[in-house]
Amino acid sequence: MIALQQEITIAAQHVIPGLPRWHHCARVDGHSYTITVTLSAPDGVFSDDLGAAIRVAVGELEEKLTAADLNSVLAEDNDERIRADDRALARWAHRWVADRLPGPASGSAYDYVGVLVREDGLKVSASSRGAAVPGEMSLSLPDQGGEPEPR
User: Fold this and answer.
1) From CA 89, how far away is CA 69, in angstroms rounded?
2) CA atoms within 13 Å, Cβ hemisphere of 110
3) Cys staple from 94: which of 15, 61, 128, 148, with CB 3.0 to 4.6 Å?
């Protein structure tokens, strides 16, 4: 198994509706995030083209997210309300990167894309990992706001 890892650091803003008024994320505020994207593939499958594709995808991800409004970005290709937190960012980035990689139909047999998001200043992180199948994740919230429904 071969793994290629790319890491970027971005600064972006968000607001999370439904939080108590005293919480800083209840109003527009900014954070720095470190996003680590890992692509794994079996020996003999990993090619220079696949390596280049992950580097390009992560570079484009950095461009898209730097100084972005995460509420807007995460909602672009999703018709439902999004809780723009680090977990949603990890799931969205996973799908976004996977959508930009050559798929199994084009001869690639990579096993998975993993995305780890760390919000600077926090000791916990959010991750999304699994088969790199475009569009496999749902990022919706119930209409009442609050926590996402368990999956």
Assistant:
1) 12
2) 28
3) 128
- Note the pTM of the prediction, 2 decimals: 0.77
d(CA 77, CA 94): 14
Q: Where are the domains of the chain?
A: 2-130
CATH topology of domain 2-130: Tetrahydropterin Synthase; Chain A (3.30.479)
Tokens of 18: 């439904």
Could you give the angle at which helices 48-65 and 86-99 cross, rounded to 10 degrees? 140
Region of residue 114 (phi > 0: left; psi between -120 and 50: alpha; otherwise: beta): beta
Task: Express each pLDDT in 101-143 by its tens digit.
Answer: 876 533 344 557 889 898 887 766 777 776 554 444 333 333 3
